[in-house]
Amino acid sequence: MTRLPERESIRFLDRFLPPSPARILAVGSGQQGVARALAEKGYAVTALEEDSDFHHYEPDEPFDAILFARSLHHLAPVDRALDCARGALTKGGVLMADEVAFDRVNVHTARWLYDLESVLVAARLVMPPGPEHAAERRPLARWRLEHVSDPPLVTGHDMLAAARERFEMTAVEEAPYLYRYLADRMQEGADTGAVLEAVLELESRLIRERDIAAAGLRFVGKSSG
User: Fold this and answer.
1) CA end-to-end distance (rounded Å), the chain
2) Is the peptide bond before 5 cis (omega within 30 degrees of 0)?
Protein backbone atom coordinates (compact mmCIF):
# COMPACT_ATOMS: atom_id res chain seq x y z
CA MET A 1 0.00 0.00 0.00
CA THR A 2 1.31 3.46 -0.93
CA ARG A 3 2.24 5.57 2.10
CA LEU A 4 0.43 8.83 2.85
CA PRO A 5 3.35 11.13 1.84
CA GLU A 6 3.54 9.41 -1.56
CA ARG A 7 -0.23 9.58 -1.99
CA GLU A 8 -0.07 13.32 -1.28
CA SER A 9 2.65 13.72 -3.91
CA ILE A 10 0.61 11.77 -6.44
CA ARG A 11 -2.47 13.94 -5.85
CA PHE A 12 -0.31 16.98 -6.61
CA LEU A 13 1.17 15.37 -9.72
CA ASP A 14 -2.21 14.32 -11.08
CA ARG A 15 -3.19 17.98 -11.38
CA PHE A 16 -0.29 18.97 -13.62
CA LEU A 17 1.26 15.98 -15.39
CA PRO A 18 0.78 15.56 -19.15
CA PRO A 19 -1.42 12.60 -20.13
CA SER A 20 0.03 9.11 -20.08
CA PRO A 21 2.05 7.52 -21.62
CA ALA A 22 4.28 10.59 -21.21
CA ARG A 23 7.91 9.97 -20.28
CA ILE A 24 8.69 10.98 -16.69
CA LEU A 25 11.99 11.18 -14.82
CA ALA A 26 11.55 10.86 -11.03
CA VAL A 27 14.67 12.13 -9.26
CA GLY A 28 15.66 11.05 -5.78
CA SER A 29 15.96 8.08 -3.49
CA GLY A 30 12.84 7.02 -1.66
CA GLN A 31 10.50 7.72 -4.57
CA GLN A 32 9.81 4.10 -5.51
CA GLY A 33 6.21 4.38 -4.33
CA VAL A 34 5.55 7.44 -6.49
CA ALA A 35 7.31 5.94 -9.51
CA ARG A 36 5.38 2.68 -9.15
CA ALA A 37 2.03 4.48 -8.87
CA LEU A 38 2.75 6.57 -11.97
CA ALA A 39 3.80 3.48 -13.92
CA GLU A 40 0.48 1.85 -12.95
CA LYS A 41 -1.26 4.87 -14.47
CA GLY A 42 0.46 4.13 -17.80
CA TYR A 43 3.40 6.55 -17.64
CA ALA A 44 6.86 5.57 -18.85
CA VAL A 45 8.79 6.26 -15.65
CA THR A 46 12.54 6.36 -15.14
CA ALA A 47 13.55 6.55 -11.47
CA LEU A 48 16.97 8.02 -10.71
CA GLU A 49 17.72 6.63 -7.27
CA GLU A 50 20.69 8.70 -6.18
CA ASP A 51 20.17 12.48 -6.03
CA SER A 52 23.85 13.15 -6.67
CA ASP A 53 23.74 11.28 -9.99
CA PHE A 54 21.43 13.86 -11.53
CA HIS A 55 24.17 16.42 -12.16
CA HIS A 56 25.83 13.90 -14.47
CA TYR A 57 22.74 12.28 -15.96
CA GLU A 58 22.43 12.29 -19.76
CA PRO A 59 19.17 10.79 -21.02
CA ASP A 60 18.99 8.98 -24.34
CA GLU A 61 16.00 11.16 -25.26
CA PRO A 62 14.27 14.06 -23.49
CA PHE A 63 11.49 13.62 -20.97
CA ASP A 64 8.01 15.09 -21.02
CA ALA A 65 8.19 15.78 -17.27
CA ILE A 66 10.78 15.76 -14.51
CA LEU A 67 9.75 15.31 -10.89
CA PHE A 68 11.76 16.36 -7.86
CA ALA A 69 10.04 15.00 -4.76
CA ARG A 70 12.05 15.58 -1.58
CA SER A 71 15.23 15.67 -3.67
CA LEU A 72 15.89 19.10 -5.19
CA HIS A 73 16.88 20.58 -1.81
CA HIS A 74 19.76 18.08 -1.78
CA LEU A 75 21.02 19.08 -5.24
CA ALA A 76 23.40 21.96 -4.57
CA PRO A 77 24.23 23.95 -6.57
CA VAL A 78 20.58 24.24 -7.50
CA ASP A 79 21.31 26.41 -10.55
CA ARG A 80 23.27 23.55 -12.07
CA ALA A 81 20.58 21.01 -11.20
CA LEU A 82 17.87 23.05 -12.88
CA ASP A 83 20.05 23.69 -15.93
CA CYS A 84 20.35 19.90 -16.22
CA ALA A 85 16.60 19.55 -15.84
CA ARG A 86 15.92 22.11 -18.54
CA GLY A 87 18.32 20.31 -20.90
CA ALA A 88 16.64 16.95 -20.24
CA LEU A 89 13.10 18.16 -21.02
CA THR A 90 11.27 18.32 -24.31
CA LYS A 91 10.13 21.72 -25.54
CA GLY A 92 7.10 22.50 -23.41
CA GLY A 93 8.10 19.80 -20.93
CA VAL A 94 7.04 20.12 -17.30
CA LEU A 95 9.22 20.59 -14.23
CA MET A 96 7.50 19.61 -10.98
CA ALA A 97 8.82 19.94 -7.43
CA ASP A 98 7.23 18.72 -4.19
CA GLU A 99 9.76 19.99 -1.68
CA VAL A 100 10.61 21.17 1.80
CA ALA A 101 11.24 24.89 2.38
CA PHE A 102 13.00 24.43 5.70
CA ASP A 103 14.00 28.10 5.78
CA ARG A 104 10.34 29.12 6.20
CA VAL A 105 9.91 27.36 9.56
CA ASN A 106 9.76 29.80 12.47
CA VAL A 107 10.01 29.20 16.21
CA HIS A 108 6.24 28.85 16.66
CA THR A 109 6.04 26.23 13.90
CA ALA A 110 9.01 24.27 15.23
CA ARG A 111 7.52 24.30 18.72
CA TRP A 112 4.23 22.93 17.38
CA LEU A 113 6.05 20.10 15.61
CA TYR A 114 8.15 19.06 18.57
CA ASP A 115 5.30 19.37 21.08
CA LEU A 116 3.23 17.08 18.85
CA GLU A 117 6.19 14.75 18.47
CA SER A 118 6.56 14.44 22.25
CA VAL A 119 2.92 13.35 22.58
CA LEU A 120 3.26 10.75 19.80
CA VAL A 121 6.51 9.44 21.26
CA ALA A 122 4.86 9.08 24.68
CA ALA A 123 2.04 7.15 23.01
CA ARG A 124 4.65 4.93 21.34
CA LEU A 125 3.38 5.84 17.89
CA VAL A 126 6.58 7.59 16.80
CA MET A 127 10.18 6.59 17.43
CA PRO A 128 12.03 9.08 19.67
CA PRO A 129 14.55 11.48 18.13
CA GLY A 130 18.25 10.81 18.31
CA PRO A 131 19.98 11.95 21.49
CA GLU A 132 21.90 14.74 19.76
CA HIS A 133 18.62 16.31 18.63
CA ALA A 134 16.63 15.58 21.77
CA ALA A 135 19.29 17.33 23.83
CA GLU A 136 18.54 20.64 22.09
CA ARG A 137 15.52 22.04 23.93
CA ARG A 138 15.09 25.22 21.90
CA PRO A 139 12.66 24.38 19.06
CA LEU A 140 14.12 26.54 16.30
CA ALA A 141 17.70 25.66 17.26
CA ARG A 142 16.81 21.96 17.05
CA TRP A 143 15.13 22.45 13.65
CA ARG A 144 18.24 24.14 12.31
CA LEU A 145 20.47 21.44 13.80
CA GLU A 146 18.43 18.75 12.05
CA HIS A 147 18.97 20.51 8.72
CA VAL A 148 22.72 20.95 8.91
CA SER A 149 24.28 19.29 5.88
CA ASP A 150 27.50 19.29 3.88
CA PRO A 151 27.00 20.63 1.30
CA PRO A 152 24.28 22.86 2.79
CA LEU A 153 20.70 22.05 1.86
CA VAL A 154 19.09 24.32 -0.73
CA THR A 155 16.50 26.70 0.73
CA GLY A 156 12.99 27.07 -0.60
CA HIS A 157 13.80 30.66 -1.52
CA ASP A 158 16.76 29.59 -3.67
CA MET A 159 14.93 26.69 -5.33
CA LEU A 160 12.07 28.93 -6.36
CA ALA A 161 14.32 31.78 -7.53
CA ALA A 162 16.42 29.44 -9.68
CA ALA A 163 13.31 27.82 -11.17
CA ARG A 164 11.80 31.20 -12.06
CA GLU A 165 14.95 32.15 -13.95
CA ARG A 166 14.77 29.03 -16.13
CA PHE A 167 11.11 28.07 -16.50
CA GLU A 168 7.74 29.64 -17.16
CA MET A 169 6.11 29.11 -13.79
CA THR A 170 2.54 27.86 -13.94
CA ALA A 171 1.92 27.09 -10.25
CA VAL A 172 3.52 27.91 -6.89
CA GLU A 173 1.85 26.59 -3.76
CA GLU A 174 2.38 26.30 -0.02
CA ALA A 175 1.89 22.79 1.33
CA PRO A 176 1.96 20.77 4.55
CA TYR A 177 5.23 18.94 5.08
CA LEU A 178 5.96 18.49 8.79
CA TYR A 179 3.73 15.40 8.99
CA ARG A 180 6.27 13.68 6.71
CA TYR A 181 8.96 13.93 9.38
CA LEU A 182 6.65 12.05 11.74
CA ALA A 183 5.63 9.56 9.01
CA ASP A 184 9.27 8.59 8.53
CA ARG A 185 9.47 7.58 12.20
CA MET A 186 6.03 6.06 12.70
CA GLN A 187 6.02 2.77 14.58
CA GLU A 188 4.33 -0.15 12.88
CA GLY A 189 0.81 -0.56 14.19
CA ALA A 190 -2.86 -0.59 13.32
CA ASP A 191 -3.57 2.97 14.45
CA THR A 192 -0.67 4.88 12.90
CA GLY A 193 -2.37 5.45 9.54
CA ALA A 194 -5.37 7.18 11.10
CA VAL A 195 -3.10 9.21 13.38
CA LEU A 196 -0.98 10.41 10.48
CA GLU A 197 -4.09 11.37 8.49
CA ALA A 198 -5.23 13.43 11.49
CA VAL A 199 -1.82 15.12 11.76
CA LEU A 200 -1.92 16.01 8.06
CA GLU A 201 -5.42 17.45 8.42
CA LEU A 202 -4.38 19.47 11.47
CA GLU A 203 -1.22 20.82 9.83
CA SER A 204 -3.16 21.76 6.69
CA ARG A 205 -5.77 23.65 8.73
CA LEU A 206 -3.19 25.52 10.78
CA ILE A 207 -1.41 26.59 7.58
CA ARG A 208 -4.68 27.85 6.08
CA GLU A 209 -5.41 29.80 9.26
CA ARG A 210 -1.82 31.16 9.34
CA ASP A 211 -1.18 29.72 12.78
CA ILE A 212 1.98 27.93 11.58
CA ALA A 213 4.25 28.36 8.58
CA ALA A 214 4.04 26.06 5.57
CA ALA A 215 7.20 23.97 5.43
CA GLY A 216 6.18 22.49 2.08
CA LEU A 217 6.73 24.14 -1.29
CA ARG A 218 5.28 22.89 -4.57
CA PHE A 219 5.89 24.46 -7.92
CA VAL A 220 5.41 23.68 -11.60
CA GLY A 221 7.26 25.20 -14.53
CA LYS A 222 7.20 24.76 -18.28
CA SER A 223 10.31 24.53 -20.46
CA SER A 224 10.50 26.81 -23.47
CA GLY A 225 13.00 24.45 -25.12
Assistant:
1) 37
2) no
Q: Which amino acid type is present at position 110?
A: A
Q: What is the pLDDT along the chain (225 residues), one digit of tens a residue?
A: 578 899 999 999 999 999 999 999 999 866 778 888 999 999 999 988 766 678 888 888 999 999 998 999 999 999 999 999 999 999 999 999 999 999 999 999 999 999 999 999 999 999 999 999 999 999 999 999 999 998 899 999 999 999 999 999 999 999 999 999 999 998 876 578 889 999 999 999 999 999 999 999 999 999 986
Residue 128's domain comprises 4-222
Of 143, 135, 132, 133, nearest in space to 101 by CA: 143
Can you give the pTM of this predicted structure?
0.92
Count how many domains the chain has: 1
Query: Looking at residue 121, which CATH number applies to its domain?
Result: 3.40.50.150
